[in-house]
Every structure is written in C-alpha cells, then in structure tokens.
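Suppose you are handed only two things: the residues of a chain and a line of SMILES describing copper (II) ion. What would the bound structure be? This form records exactly that question and the answer produced for it, so the two can be stored side by side and reused later without any lookup.

QUESTION INPUTS
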Amino acid sequence: MSDHKEDDNKTGISRRGFLGATAAASVAGAGLAAGVLVGGKEAEARTKTNANGLKFHVDPGELDDYYGFWSGGHSGEVRILGVPSMRELMRIPVFNRDSATGWGQTNESKRILGDNPQDYMGAGDTHHVHASYTNGTYDGRYLFTNDKLNTRVARIRMDIMKTDKIITVPNVTSIHGLRLQKYPKSNYAFANGEMVIPQPNDGRDLENPENYWTMLSAIDVESMEVKWQVLVDGNLDNNDTDYQGKYVCSTCYNSARGVTLPEMMGPERDWAVVINLKAVEEAVAAGDFTTIGDCKVPVVDGRGAEQGGSKFTMYIPVPRSPHGLNTTPDGKYFIANGKLSPTVSIIEIAKVDDYFAGKLKDPRDAVIAEPELGLGPLHTTYDNRGNAYTSVFLDSQVVKWNIADALRAAKGEKVNYIRQKLDVHYQIGHIKATMAETKEPDGKWLVALCKFSKDRFLPVGPLHAENDQLIDISGDEMKLVHDGPTFPEPHDCIMVRRDSVRPARVWKRDDPYFAETVAMAKADGITLEQDNKVIRDGNQVRVYMTTIAPNFGLTDFKIKQGDEVTVVITNMDSIEDLHHGFALTNHGINFEIAPQATASVTFTANKPGVHWYYCSWFCHALHMEMSGRMLVEAA
Ligand SMILES: [Cu+2]
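ANSWER OUTPUT
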C-alpha cells in the first residue's frame, strides 16, 4: 500500500488522506487538480496545461479530441464523455428505464427491449463498452455492451447513439467479458458467460456443481444472432481478440468451477483460454456440434484443460485468479493480469499459432514473461511507444512498464522494465488509454477508473461518488491532471478519436428505428408528416399528431375511460437540437421526440377527466404554452 501522508493543507482544503507522496507531488504540479489552491494567472495556466504540455482544459467553443464511451455499471446505461475535458455529454439508456427519453416506455424502445422491461423492471449492469472495428481500428458503426445482471448483450448505433438491439444469450448466466473481432472487421462480438450453471439449466443438477459449465458465445454483429458457443472448462472472466481475426482469449478465475470462495481460490494457477475461431467455424459448418435443451445454437465442446486444450481451445496456465486480458496494439501478445498474483503473464500469439499447428506441445511455453508489477494487477492498456500501463488494485497505483524490457529481463538481462509507479485514487479498477484497443494507439491520455472516491469530493451522504482520473501519458512521466466524480459504477471505457465517429444531426424519416410505427400509421391511412387525427378501432384509439415549435398538432383529443390509447408524435422541426417531449400529466408518461423522429407510447386511459399534456424538452420561448388536453369520458 502507498503511505498515508496527510497534505500540509495550507489552504484549509483537505486532500484525501490516503493519497501517497508520489501522487501528492505530481498532483501539486498539476495545480488545482487535487484542491491545491494557487492564485491568479498561474492557477489558470496550470489548469489548462500540465508539465507534459497536453492541454486538458477545453475552452468554451472548443471541442474535445475524443469521444469517451463509458459503461454505467448497475445504472444499466452507457455514457458519452468528452476527453480530455471529461465532461459528460450524453447518456444512452440501454437496460435501464429512463424518464427523460422515455426509454423502456415508448413502443420503439419496448420493441428493442422485448419482454425484458416487464421482467427486469429496467435493471441492468453494463461493464464493458466496445466499438466495432474495420482493419483493426474503430469504424464508427456500433457500440456493444454487456448486461452482467440479466445475461444480455446490447448494440448501440453510433449514428443516432441509441440502443437498437438487445439479445438474451442462451445457455449461460451473467455476461461479463465482451469484445469484438478486430480484423478484417467486426463480424462477431464475443461474450463470456461468467457463472457456471447446469446444462440445460432446467432444474436438473441443482446440487451437482461438477455438472455446472459455461460457454463463450459468438454473436453476429449485424443479425445479433448467437452463431455458436464453445463449452469450456472453468469459468470465463474478461476477454480480448487478436489483430488477425483468428482468436479470442479469455481469463478464467475459477478453473475449479467452485461454488464457494475457498473452492474458487483453491488452485495456485488458473488459466487464459484461447479459442480458435477457424476451427470452431469449420466444426459448426461440418455439423460437428451439439445443442442444449430446446436451444438451436450450435455448441462445440472445447473442454480438455487437463490435456492443455482441444482442437478448438488452448488452456494456458497463469497465476492466479487472473482478471483483465489485453492484447498489445502490435498484435503480438495477450497480456493476462494476475489479480491475486503480483504479475502479469505475457502470452506470445505466434506460439498460439504454433500450438494449433501442432508445433508447440505444452501451452505453458506460450508464456514468455511474467513481469512483477505490484499487488493486484487488474487491467493493462498501451501507448504507441512500447509501454504498458497496468492498474494495480491493492497498491492503488498505475504502473508504467516497458514490454520489450520486460521480455529482456525474462531472458536474464539486468534491466528495469518499470518506468514509473503513479499513486492514484483508492483501489483502481479498469484503466484505458486513448485508442489503446486499436492498432492506432496514440499515447496521449489515460483514464484510471475506480470504485472508491473516499474523501476526494464534498460529502453527499453515505453513498459516495465514484471517480475517474485523467492522466497525461504523452511524456516520459505520467501526470495526473483531473478528478471526475461519477455516478456508480463506470467499470470501463474506451476513448475513440473524434474523426472516427460520425453522428447524425437530425433523424432521417426512413430510419428503421421507427419503421414499425410508420407501418402502423400507413395501415391507418395516416401520413405522419402532416396528419393530426384520432383513429378509433373498437376500444383501441390511435392519436396521431405532429409537433412544430411551439405547437402540438392537436390541442385536445377525446377518448373514453378504458380505451387503449396509442399516442404517436412526429417532430416536423428539422433544426438541429430542436427536440420536443410529450409529457402526459398523472400518467407517468414522458418521452422525447428529436427532430424528424417519430415516437409513440401505448397506455390504458383509466382516469376520467381532463389531463394536460405538455412539451418536456425545451423548444421555444412559448415552450410553457406548448400543451394540450386529453379529455377522458367516464365509462
Ligand atoms: Cu416543444
């Protein structure tokens, strides 16, 4: 652990007590970052640049250099931050229920969520956000995120930044690790089932954990179908893919498939398991697979850890309860982070090739170095100068080390591969550098994500903010420049160069996102762009209206108590940023309609009387007056 040195606190503003001496020194160098008050122009200069010269203050009118995509953890959402400003720009509701946008309430979002909102009440747990690739770098098509809570995977369209597909992954429980194929492009997203369960999990083998198993699932990025699964020994934690489109490699922290902590912690070594995509695809094409229960997904048996693997899998022993698995941007190595071991294991991917070609017999020989970094290595990220940065949980440090030097040291050369250990906030978790998961890392910024902010911020009750720290890695020395409090729990993030993201400014009227609603209107003889009409069909009523600031197309509509009402709004404003909202009083209904979008909601009108609706997304000087009445006749 770092020493617990108190700040001398000349300014009366207390810095967190557990900040170590090294961090205190470097934070002081970064001016206001840790509450060290310095005066006037000096303070201004220090907040705008740091000693490495990278500017992290983004002035009014300027734009950030990177899109940061953050998971929202058990908030169930994804967030967009600007980097380096660390300002939150947008939230993308995914598995959660969102009152502002109507996610989980509109018909359009319910179609995407399926039956899940009813089953899960808007609960989810996103851990990892990853973007789609073409030729090893981001192509701006999709983001993917996992739901550890309810075993789901979601896809987000990066043009509209909305979730457009969610699937529940069969035969497994608790999707944790999630990565996309990097080359030639992201045809698959690979999802790890973390917990082991009976197969099928239908009430059999409840008390026979020896019959509990898990699988890796390959999800087609376009169709979102699970194309195949690979049954493995142990469990599956984090994963990553290579840069040739050949492998996905996952850590396993529970090789014993234990169900209690002592059982899980038992083995001295667990493993990283590599899955050979070509071998699996050939087996699936040849019909060499089984299925489980009623599920039609082909399952290939990749067990065989005791023999080192199978034709589909290679089990590489690594110490102990490994956690993060991170491919180096040059595509040469998988690095497994030891968690309960102070080491990371460097796995040479060329030796994985040799193993599957029959030229390497013992998977242990693929590990070419195990550099010792500190207590509790969790995740590793990279710059463009051959350095790796590992989050070390128990030491609460970022450890910068040089990969080539670590390999030389492993061969017996006397070389210090550690470049710097930077004290960061308490018990760091994930760590990510800009563009580090592509073949184009740029070595500019690094974010250290954490679980505990302790006393870094004004206290807000027993529940504390969490924290993301921005670190300048562009120079020889890492510099901590910014603390960013955040609502729990952003596990992980990626930072994408802004030129690879091309968001739409307004919706296109033919967007498939609301195509079903358009088809419903067409069947009713309605032209959504111009009609303001009420269609009655038995006790089903469809209310179609347009919005143009500051008017709803209908200032009232009349229905009967007990009617099932569908309100369909089309926002005919085409000016960027001119949203409207439809908020129906005393009905718990609110949703956004962005420019040129159509959105709808269906509910039962069970309260007779006058119920006002109003625009909830500010639109105009007469925004307050943008309202109307739903008149409900008593039954
Ligand atoms: Cu409005």
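WHAT STANDS OUT: The CA atoms of residues 380 and 390 lie 4 Å apart. The pocket of copper (II) ion is lined by residues 549-550, 580, 615, 619-620, 623, 626 (CB under 6 Å).
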